Amino acid sequence: MPAGSMLTILVALVFVPANGGSGGASQPPQLEERARIHFARAPQLEERARIHFARAKDNGARLALLHALETDLGTPRATSYRPVLSRMLDRVLASANPDGMLYNEFRPSDLAAIDRKLSDNWGYVYGAVYTHFMATGETRYRDAVRRVLGRLPRYRGYDWENGSQDGYADAIESALYLYAREPVPEARDWIESEIKTLIAFQRPDGTVERWYGDGNWARTLLLYAMWKTQGCYVDGWRDGVKLGAVRDGARLFVSLEGPPGLPEAGKRCARARS
Q: Do both 217 and 161 map to the same domain?
């Protein structure tokens, strides 16, 4: 397994309940060693980047999550990780186009775009940026996220992945993750317009493109549905039920429609969200 993928898993495991517990900040023994390797290699990687390239693609934010964890735990490692991570994120942000959108590939030495196609995974990278804001309190990282969200209307109908639904799914998912933290109106409007394009990819038989990437289509629409219901659900749902919810500050408004006998069809539930 690639070291980066292992690091992603190990950071997530910190918050998984163990033996019926509630989860907590006890690190898997391999996590510290993996982290040490990554950050110790940073100077060599920066030197290689002068002649190589960087890809603003795919999920992760693993180093940002690790730094946030170490910051929360108050370990000395957080202090040593912070300047390295800040330098990396600053370079990534500097490579973006005027709207803050990231190119698929760029050369860190001079920020030249090698692949000028925009990354459909832009929000996963900005997830690392926002995580760094939450860990450090440096508002310029939050400002960068709000800027790119505010410019989304300029990218209505953009072909992210050569006509594939996969690109639309990842780009919309990118916006959904960030909008949950920063509800910029322009981002909401963009999500609503682009989700129609994504839904239209489904074929009459229920399939989409008939490859494993169809899971991305389903995941993004599940996230969209969770946003539209704000975590509410009906325990005992049946065909014909329509559920929606919206928040106004600390208040939650819920709309529930359905066939006769709906009150007996199931219990209305809501998941708490801070």
A: yes
Residue 101 in contact with residue 126, Cβ under 8 Å?
no
pTM: 0.85
For residues 137 and 140, what is the distance between their CA atoms, to the nearest angstrom?
Answer: 9
Picking from 162, 170, 151, 157, the residue whose alpha carbon sits closest to that of residue 117 is 162
Per the structure, how many domains does the chain have? 2
Q: Where are the alpha helices (DSSP H) in the chain?
A: 3-13, 29-40, 42-49, 62-73, 76-94, 122-136, 139-150, 165-179, 185-199, 214-229, 262-265
127 and 253 co-located in one domain? no
Pair (208, 237) in one structural domain = no
Spatial CA neighbour of 169 closest among 206, 203, 188, 197: 197
Q: Are 141 and 86 in contact (CB under 8 A)?
A: no
Residue keyed to tokens 């002649």? 51
Q: Are 172 and 220 in contact (CB under 8 A)?
A: yes
Query: How far is CA 81 from its chain centroid?
Result: 22
Give pLDDT tens digits for 145-188: 999 999 999 999 999 999 999 999 999 999 999 999 999 999 99
Q: Which domain holds residue 14?
A: 3-232
**Beta strands 242-248; 251-257: pairing state:** antiparallel
